[in-house]
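#struct-pred
JK: can someone run the complex with zinc ion? inputs below
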Amino acid sequence: MRKLIYILVILTIANILIGANYPDFKSIVQRQHEIRAQEKEYYARYWPEFTENTREMDNYDVLYYFIDINIDFENEYIEASNLMQFEILEDGTTEIDVHFTDDLTADGATVNLITTSYTHINGIINIDLMGTYNAGDMLEVEIFYSGNPVARLEDGIKFEEHAGVPVVFSMVSPRGARKWWPCKDTPADKPDSLDIWITYPSQYICASNGLLQEEINNGNGTKTSRWHESYPVATYLTSFAITNYQIHSFLWEYNTEQMMVDNYYYPEQAASSIALYDQCEDMLTFLSDTYGIFPFLTEKYGHATCTNLGALAMEHQTCTSFDAGYISDPAAEYTVAHELGHSWAGDCLSIGSWSHVWLKEGFASYSEALWAEHLYGSAGLQDYMQAEDTGSVLDECLYRDDTQGANHIFNSVVYNKGSWTVHMLRGILGDEDFFALMQYYFQNPDLIYGNVLTEDLKNCAEDVAGYDMDWFFDEWFWNYGRPRYNYCYYTSSEEDSVKITLFSEGSQSDPFNMYVPFNIDDEQYRIWAADGYNYNTFETIGAIEDINWDPDNWVLDGGYAEKIPTLDEVSRSRDGSTVLTWEEFFDPEIEGFNIYRKLVGEDYIQLNATPVSGTFYFDEDVTAGQQYYYKISAVFDSEENYTSKFSNEISLIPVDFTFDQGILLVDGTQDY
Ligand SMILES: [Zn+2]
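RT: done, structure tokens with the ligand placed:
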């Protein structure tokens, strides 16, 4: 008995703890949306359109970058060079274009070590290759530059301070790389590898992408950190951050593999930073189980704290930047999961076009929901997804038109509807196939470390599912709105089956075809609901209590409205009979209606022998002064006697005709 009491006490404490710690997912998701909306504001201010003219850059393919940058903290000044190796893609190429901010000065350029001429206008450096080259030719161009970086749009190089100490870092998403180094600034052309050498005041510590190869004390109050990123990396994912960091490192072990995790934090935030950043250890294991092993395994993962980052966090490759003001936020744990998720979605599999940005933000956002599920089971997943459904703002299509502004590209649609689209894919495939797809897609040798478009995900999904998935991406990538449903069900007196009429329509006029899960009492079912009317019959055992649509929340729907016949009015007609009128029913396939009547204290009797078509009925067999009750039902199949739920009930006392002086006297009450 005592043991039992102990167990009860422990269970109670456990319940209290779970209750106390269960996160408010709504506020977590909202918190992230608010900040993202701010980011969007910045983008919108500087980029009225997001079309990137890389046409002039399609004549070469970048293989390697080597950035050598010297940062003068005092004067907020840089002196740097970038050497790029590339392959010519078009015969007859005589020049190439490179993105570079007009805020910095290009001081010189070489082609294969020989000085060449160039122009630098409107954010583009055009370099004369001093010769004509053909597809397959390899070249090396080096550009020297200097100046005071301007962090427009909250990105580029930023000179900030924390606790009186300077912190200098780059924040480069989505077009900030060109603000500190000249490059072909599109995620669609990743170099195979990259070196960043950074020279800075020797009392500080520098975090960057990949592995630190060497640190050289220059003997003049500066030191140089030589970082090497050995994996392909998109320009918008390159970064560095320098201040009086402390480093908290640990070894992450996964099966027989291991990797260092290095977290760079501010001394004054030691406890909160370590507590937050260390959570990525379990997440690395969990997401490796989910998406396949962490893609930058031979290097590292980690975080670097920055001040006024301009975002909550940014998934710079192998070194996520995290805003100092956000570290103690209750939502921050889910941001850690989001950014780590980007290691697979965005960093390893980079988007091939900003129009498909959901492929990185959708999966990163779904990583948050998966983490909630990992911690809190299916309730965590469902609550998280519920919070991600922010209503009609998700009516826009996932495809982003990059001729529109940056605020269009980074709309919350790509996060929330993106996450929902991954979730719905899971709902359709089922867990076994969905998680097989995750491994197949993220570890696919044809895709890994390269670029993806929505088509690539679709092809992988079709390979795993074994059937055509065009319809799914039509609905959720190209379509506006979401499906919403009207339904009615009919049961027979045999109580052995139920007929369901489900009407599907898109909330924004686009048609929707979708699998819809539902329960009949406790039994689980799923039907294919094409746009328009759908008719299905299911066997049941005994009378059914209810139909519960999408009980586990797998579809981003606009709701399910049950349709039941509605009696409008019951009144007395001039000839003394009772006339019933009702609304047109939504289901065009019904045969008609059954009419039921009763007296107080008696059972209902059916008045009609065959279904009544139309929307009215005369009951002539009435006695003045008696109170009658009426209701109707829709008849789907009179032979098998399939009828809908009963309508509302209306009562009436017919008045004696002889007293009627031509005035319509009705004593009717409606009872819904
Ligand atoms: Zn993201």
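RT: quick notes.
The radius of gyration is 33 Å.
The chain has four domains: 25-45+354-468, 53-185+189-331+345-351, 483-562, 567-671.
JK: thanks, will look after standup
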